[in-house]
Amino acid sequence: xxxxxxxQLTAAEKQLLKEQKISIKSLTDYAPDxxxxxxKADTKRTREINALxxxxxxxxxxxxxxxxxxDQGYYSLQQLQGKTAVELFDAFEKHCGTWADPCVEDxxxxxxxxxxxxxxxxxxxxxTAERKAYxxxxxxxxxRPVKPWYELNKxxxx
Length: 158
What we know:
mainly alpha, 53% helix
């Protein structure tokens, strides 16, 4: 079963796809330079679209997680190779300035596992016990943000 990839295309990008009779879901079949040509995207936008597709190709990781990785300056799984889940999660919390829901750390653990093993059978929740055991033994960094993620204005609805 192929996963649905969300891309957050602009109205203009969607119109260009429509004119060329190319579906959004079929963009995953195109190379980056082809996507750039099809939607008349600059290098930065093409990198974002490719990153969204690559990150969301990992089972149980969605667009929100992919957007957060891009927000931190990551555009490929190759950039993340060699990093640990703890290192990535702790950096994520510092980047946001808030502590995150524990399932986010589980998602980082899945990400690192996937990069190392290309194992599509795992989901983020398969790493909950591993996270709990690790945090019980090592805790969190002393400089961990104290404000919770749900108080971040980004997530507050009007």
